[in-house]
Amino acid sequence: MSVLICDSNGELWYTRARELGLDYISMPYFYGGQEYFYDLGEHTDFKGFYDAVRSGEIPKTQALNPEEYKRILIPYFERGEDVLYVSFSHKLSGTFSSLDTALLELKERFPERKCTVFDTKSICLGTGIQAEEAAKLKQAGASDEEILAFLEQLRDKVRVYFVVDDLMHLKRGGRCSSLAAAAGTILQLKPMLTVSDGELKVIQKLGGRKKAISTLANKVIEELRDEEKHVYIVDADCPEEGDRLRDLVLAKRPNAQIVRQTVGPVIGSHCGPGTLGVIFIG
Known about the structure:
Elements: E1 3-7, H1 14-20, E2 23-25, E3 28-31, E4 34-37, H2 46-54, E5 60-61, H3 66-78, E6 83-87, H4 95-109, E7 115-119, H5 125-139, H6 144-154, E8 158-163, H7 167-172, H8 178-187, E9 189-196, E10 199-207, H9 209-223, E11 230-235, H10 239-252, E12 257-262, H11 265-271, E13 276-281
Parallel strand pairs: 1-2, 1-6, 6-7, 11-12
Antiparallel strand pairs: 3-4, 3-5, 8-9, 8-13, 9-10, 11-13
Helix pairs in contact: 3-4, 5-6, 9-10
């Protein structure tokens, strides 16, 4: 049996991670000339971050290097523990090449230990919801093999839909062209994105915030299958709209187990303020 860990790009709230007995890897972000590591909201200055971005600050993220991964993993291996890491999408970051390098070096020092990495092929709480379900299985006594088999089945059922307010944030991250970003900004188009096979895909372009909110609500109303599992509704510094989205869902699916949450700064660096999202098992 391994120690189950996740990363902060999975965005489970810190209290939930503790309830589940999950350790996590903190991912870095930079703004205002300082480096921070996302702690799942425990001491995060969300207001300071989003106020800075709205004022023109351009935040940045960065992959961890092999030495940082070794620092994280060595204590587990020294205690004689293996690791099962439920990670965010490998296609969305170069950080996993550093992890591979670290694991190759650690294999020489700890030949009897292993770190198994499960790629959720998702991001934000699309990853978090998979880590959450894995941790619940672990608490019930499931083996690593049983957890991995379950995750293989769950991965394609996880739904992630989100709408960004400003295409220029996606442009900086290479997710849309400069021309598309400028045109979308002028026309006030709100692109709806999903995660498909580990990559971000634009699936609709919506006119205005009201349409975006109602479309996201309808995604949950129409596709939610298991009302006993959490439905995450997230916002990047637009809580009133997030609450409106929640209310629209509950009007049609009153038994939905909705959790409201703020988008963390690492994800927020790429999607920008005003982003709204829904994550659930479909």
